[in-house]
């Protein structure tokens, strides 16, 4: 019987070490939910790093056995590997380059070597499990070389690859010293998926200009094989957000917050700490709103959640300081005894509280400089039972391709963003409902389960096509 193997940098369960014991904490992330129904099926497995360093072989054995019971296979990484492969090549070379922040990118040979070695380590872990007829679905920018490594060892396997971040223009990719190896690595797959057609077009162009392989209708001819490329915009577990937002607990939290805020209207902002998310620009735009429209002072507050992330990387620490300063400056200038312009939280919240904030907010600001998709935009939409509320969305988030009923803005245009906030705050209810209803029907239909099925169906199709071409 053929099986499906999911591979990603992190497992959908995080293992934490406390003083005397280990805890296994399942992730609530979108990917874990979407692929949950696949990897838990009999015989299937998810391969990835469990999130902690292990030196004791007995402990390694214990963790492996525990994870195995829930269809997971760990790849253990050392501290040096996390430093050079993860913080180094993945997050200091690929992440900035793929998000058009090349000024932040470093090009270290040692980081590249660690990246190759860790992709090889993942390859060995998958090969220990994979038979010749199996289907392997590899995820994201940390594992760009893995499809080709697997292909060499298992030529008959069905291999899919999905990139969760943008694929940038050829002009960005050509800067990377290891550009050809990275593209060749991805081309080991039978099917390569992106969030949008724009990213797919950039990929086809890079492959053609750097490797000389032509393509037609999303089908690349390499000297040895045909590779299909397509767009699969990722969705969320709509029902989960809808139900959680309607739960008694979410309503209770909302009532509590409402009481504390009195009549003040709420604009919401939720992100991981990342320079790609446009957090500082958003704060400046909120300041412009307060300057230009004094009537909103004491009437509107910005609730801003920033979830700690990658604070070992220098630019992230600097961004944190910039945000602290901006919030401090704006609050000290405009606050009154009874009103706080910005409520800023640097920590993560449980889902029920997140849902109550989605309920509470009249406006959501999702204004990244670049974002592969952005799931916060979709979660806000799913949480709006009464269909009131306005989404302000950056034209450079993948989600903007689908969510055209949002107010679409250019996140570097501070004036436009401030005007969009004003427009959202005065938007008639009828228009809000009209827009939100359209957004909801789209996000409900193209949920994460539809996304998974679409990709898996297309992957099986790509293999059948490959076999037909081979016998012709
Ligand atoms: C990458 C790509 C692409 C946030 N704060 C809390 C919390 N969150 C959850 C949100 C959302 C998730 O984190 C963030 O997902 P995004 O899609 O917005 O962004 P990335 O983490 O950068 O993800 C992105 C995604 O992959 C999928 O392909 O869309 O473009 O960069 O689900 O709700 N969750 C909880 N508490 C918080 O405080 N529980």
From TrEMBL:
Q: What class of enzyme is it?
A: transferase
Instruction: Report the pathway entry.
Output: Glycan biosynthesis; trehalose biosynthesis
Q: Does the keyword Cell membrane apply?
A: no
Question: Which Gene Ontology terms describe the biological processes this protein takes part in?
Answer: trehalose biosynthetic process
As recorded in UniProt, its EC number(s) are 2.4.1.15
Does the keyword Coiled coil belong to this entry? no
GO CC terms for this protein?
cytosol
Gene Ontology molecular function terms on file: alpha,alpha-trehalose-phosphate synthase (UDP-forming) activity; trehalose-phosphatase activity
Its domain of life reads Bacteria
Recorded catalytic reaction(s): these are: D-glucose 6-phosphate + UDP-alpha-D-glucose = alpha,alpha-trehalose 6-phosphate + UDP + H(+)
Ordered alphabetically, the record's keywords are: Glycosyltransferase, Transferase
What family does the database annotate?
Answer: Belongs to the glycosyltransferase 20 family.
The UniProt subunit note reads as follows:
Homotetramer.
Report the protein name in the record: Alpha,alpha-trehalose-phosphate synthase
Source organism of the structure: Hymenobacter mucosus
Tell me the classification of the organism that encodes this protein: Bacteria, Pseudomonadati, Bacteroidota, Cytophagia, Cytophagales
